[in-house]
Fold this sequence. Notes:
The complex is a heterodimer. Chain A is mainly α. Chain A has a domain at 70-151: Cytochrome c-like domain (Cytochrome Bc1 Complex, Chain D, domain 2), CATH 1.10.760.10. Chain A has 8 helices and 2 strands. A two-stranded antiparallel ribbon of chain A has the order 1-2. In chain A, helix 6 packs antiparallel against helix 8 (136-147). By secondary structure, chain B is an all-alpha fold. Chain B has a domain at 43-137: Cytochrome c-like domain (Cytochrome Bc1 Complex, Chain D, domain 2), CATH 1.10.760.10.
Amino acid sequence: MTRPLTIAASLAAVLALASLPPSAPAQEATPTTEPAPAETGADTAQDPASAAQAQPAAPAATTPAALVGNADSGRQLTYTCLGCHGIEGYRNVYPTYRVPMIGGQSAVYLTNALTEYRKGTRQHPTMEAQAQSFSDQDIADIAAFLSELTP
Amino acid sequence: MSRLSSAGRAGRIALPLLFALALAACGGGDAGESGQMSSSAGLPDGRMAEGETQAAVKGQATGQSCVDCHGADGNQPLDDTYPKLGGQHYDYLEYALVQYRDGRREHALMSQQAANLTDQQIADLAAFFASQPTELRDLHGVH
Lengths: 151, 143
């Protein structure tokens, strides 16, 4: 009888902890700069010219609208990544493998990865939870910062 | 085929629990770097030479090889959506390929590329790309 309660209590505690970002600056609630609706494939296919006029800034987006990332903002946002990605040889468990080196990957790859984690189409408990807190602009900023790193 | 247990699916259900475990595990990270490519995921040891050969084999479904898209050393992706693989941790590369093979990570090309790989081939490919020069780094000291 008491066991479910114990589990529930510890889960609640963990979740409460998890909801506190390790670094304060991570949540500078960026104004909701929603990207232009990306699913316009059918429209643009019908009439590229008028579609272009209707959506002046929309490139033929393959990935979530190309926001311009701010690396300085990304620097602040990535303090939260250090707990795992900032430790040399840090290992994920269940299963066990070293977490990937992400500095130096392309901004597009990083943007896609974080966006997929946020949607749940790419799965990893910690990464999905982390990505939940990021806006599209946050993700662009993080990607900008990380992609500029060199070994 | 010693596939990983269905932790992925269970993870969806017990996500908070796994998350708790992951948090609990934070704080360590033994960087114990023994020899080369011995896997903790139940895969055989990786062989770089065989991996290099395998990396150039065209996938049946895609007509592409690993190096066709990621570059000869894994560092010249054909497209910005493809990751750099050179020097990446071999055990992460193994994990990624197993995830693709087992349908727990999806990509139009990679899912097909990985679908028929054996454990040995995955270990070999990971060993090869991990042995290449890298343009990647972890985030130690970047702030």
